[in-house]
Amino acid sequence: MKNECSIIRDLLPLYAENMVSDDTAAFVAEHLKSCEACRKEYEQIKKPKPIQKGNDAAPLQKLSHKLKLKRIQTIALTAVFVIALLVSAFAVLGAPIYQPYSEGIVTIEELGDKGLTLTFDKNVTDFHYDIHDDPDDSSICICDIEAWTTLWDKWFSQGKENLSATVVSEGKPMYLFYIPNDTSENVCLAKYDPSAENQIEIDGETKGITTLPRLVLGYYLILATGVLGIMVIVWLLTRKKQTVRLWVERIGLYPVAYIVSHCIVSGINWTTYSISRDFSLIIFLSILLYSGLLLAHNIWYLKKEIKTVNRL
């Protein structure tokens, strides 16, 4: 039908760019099976055409490319933010809640001259101990003990067996200190001397020593805030330089991501008793959030470009 061929040829540019509905695509495909003239026209349209400088010869191709890029980036953005949400949940649920000292939180038993066995009560779901020489007397060693639980363990890990560990002093007398990590004084749990007749002496007294939290996270937070402030000033001073502004926006998104990551991992606190865990989580989460913010930034600019192409 002549009129049908005219309609089909009007639709062919859109059909070639996959920019028609499924019903329309089926209608065009059915017509092309039986009409050689329209099929040749379609094959001619599908041939790649070079775009000359200064000549917008294929606006539909440009628009289709931008739409596809926008879809891909939107999918990637969703995936990044889902992963960031999972990491944030892990950071909150896995954050150590340090256990204050109480009588019976650690039970100490001697293993002859081989060392000591530490057994924690059921409120403790994880622990760490560090053995080091006394800075004032290298013939004596110190064992610092930390114990904690997490929200995850409180909610989902009930009924576990008591945790235990074996501590070896390597033949030296050893003092065992419990570190509560709550600004209260450290507690000397016991004195152990493998060469003495009564090898272990239970103490349980505070020694006027307090383990203070690290402040390094606060310094990084101040640095990120300062860099963000500088980026804002540069952005305001470069209103007429769109390329410079674009790069300032891209760079400025990272301090934003770092500040948000710090608040997720450590809240509004500047201090930490577990610097390696908290800082590594902040860096990992900030990279994820930065990737998501960059994708969102690119999608926003793509929307502006698509609107410009549609006006042409």
Q: Low-confidence stretches at least 5 residues in length (pLDDT < 50)?
A: 53-57
Report mean pLDDT, rounded to a whole number.
83
Strand residue content: 15-25%
Distance between the amino and carboxyl termini: 33 Å
* Multimeric state: single chain
What's the helix count?
A: 8
The computed structural class is alpha+beta
Shape: elongated
Radius of gyration: 33 Å
Describe this entry's structure for a reader.
It is a single chain. This protein is of the alpha+beta class. It folds into three domains: 2-47, no CATH class; 62-93 and 214-311, no CATH class; 97-206, no CATH class. Helices cover 53% and strands 18% of the residues. The strands form two sheets. Strands 1, 4, 5, 7, 8 and 9 form a six-stranded mixed β-sheet that branches. A hairpin with a 2-residue loop joins strand 4 (126-134) and strand 5. The longest helix has 37 residues, at 275-311. The protein is elongated.
Characteristic key phrases:
312 residues; 3 domains; alpha+beta; 3-stranded antiparallel β-sheet; 6-stranded mixed β-sheet
Give the SSE layout.
Layout: H1 2-16, H2 22-34, H3 36-46, H4 59-93, E1 97-98, E2 106-110, E3 116-120, E4 126-134, E5 137-149, H5 151-156, E6 164-167, E7 174-178, E8 187-192, E9 200-206, H6 216-237, H7 242-266, H8 275-311
Parallel strand pairs: 5-7
Antiparallel strand pairs: 1-5, 2-3, 3-6, 4-5, 7-8, 8-9
